[in-house]
Design goal:
single chain
Length: 370
């Protein structure tokens, strides 16, 4: 129950009718969620369980379906911009692809390896995969064939791609005994790699905008921070407004302006200014091992290890304000067309719901009932 809004519908405060906004736990089972990916809209999601299966959602994470992919130590999954083409890898196993939203899966010719991370361009044609102990491989034909790149053999932890597959970035946890590594970038589809000026750290995850110009990476250690770059990785800035800790995962919208990061022993934090200022977003604490964003940064999904998958969904403004804030920033919109709902007699004109076309809707249709 939220605090009073001082806006009344039939003498009932809106806070008694509508569910306050925030992160919501989905119906996905409690499992070792190692990786989650999203299409450009946030409608189509796919996630992998280490020691389990691949699951998909076609309704912004409301419901989840176990796919036909085999049970394995899945480590990472990537999606094209539509959610139709997916690629997933197994730690100490192979790489699989799907061209039908995850309905069926095909083992590719990529060698068996300790795959830790996989990335895709916006079409699914250009893929890049990194091994936790080994090399980086790329594919330019939807995963049909793979080529070992010139990137060094090391303890890679994460890889990311721009929309074209031309600009790639990868980070490493580092070789023993130092246990720290560096960030590398490629501007030619992975043909050659350059070690950037980012300092030696235990890098946990890396992400970028749609162009590869804006990058963000997080450090997985007790004193870990988040670093950002606005010049394709040429220079890096440590962001100090985010607390120190074991940062496990990070994601970006298509512009690089909106970022979200998950802590391994804390909360989810978000930034709306390219990573300069961060604020706590989730109230649930845990090991936020993986996080993903749609192209706008308004629809997020995150996996909390051994707990479940949570989503944070935003929709179009209602243009109804409460103390200067749009209702949609305070309350959680429905993601599916409600069969029954409380009629408030307050109509929102020219509204585009997540589940339908633009039109006039009752507030009870747009928002969930408590």
């Amino acid at each position: 129950m939220s605090s009073g809004t001082n806006y009344f519908v039939n003498l009932t405060d809106l806070s008694n009718i509508l569910q306050p906004r925030g992160w919501s736990k989905t119906s996905a089972p409690a499992a070792n969620w190692y990786s989650i990916t999203s299409d450009s809209t946030g409608k189509y999601l796919a996630a992998v369980v280490n020691g389990g299966y691949i699951y998909i959602s076609s309704n912004y994470g409301e419901t989840w379906t176990q796919t036909s992919a085999p049970s394995a130590d899945w480590s990472s999954i990537a999606s094209d911009s539509t959610g139709e083409r997916l690629a997933a890898c197994i730690s100490n196993g192979h790489i699989y692809t799907s061209s039908n939203y995850g309905s069926s899966w095909t083992q590719t010719s990529a060698p068996s390896a300790y795959w830790i991370s996989i990335a895709s361009d916006s079409t699914g044609k250009y893929l890049a995969a990194a091994g936790s102990v080994g090399y980086i491989y790329t594919s330019s034909n939807y995963g049909s064939s793979w080529t070992q790149t010139s990137a060094p053999s090391t303890y890679w932890s994460s890889i990311t791609s721009d929309n074209t597959g031309k600009y790639l970035a990868a980070c490493e946890t580092g070789l023993p005994p130092t246990g720290t590594g560096y960030i590398y970038t490629s501007s030619n589809y992975g043909s050659s790699w350059t070690q950037t000026s980012a300092p030696a750290r235990v890098w946990g995850s890396i992400t970028n905008d749609s162009t590869g110009k804006y990058l963000a990476a997080c450090v997985t250690s007790s004193s870990g921070r988040i670093f950002t770059s606005s010049n394709y990785g040429s220079s890096w800035t440590q962001q100090t407004s985010v607390p120190q800790g074991f940062w496990r995962s990070i994601t970006s919208d298509s512009t690089g302006q909106y970022l979200a990061a998950g802590n391994g022993s804390g909360y989810i934090y978000t930034s709306s200014d390219y990573g300069s200022v961060w604020s706590q977003s989730s109230t649930q604490t845990g090991n936020w091992y993986t996080i993903t964003s749609d192209s706008t940064g308004r629809n997020l999904a995150a996996g909390c290890l051994t707990v479940g998958i949570y989503t944070y969904n935003q929709s179009n403004p209602t243009n109804y304000l409460v103390n200067g804030s749009d209702l949609n920033t305070i309350f959680k919109p429905t993601t599916t067309n409600p069969v029954t709902y409380t009629t408030t007699n307050y109509r929102v004109k020219n509204y585009t719901p997540l589940w339908g076309s633009t039109g006039d809707y009752d507030l009870g249709q747009i928002f969930q009932n408590i």
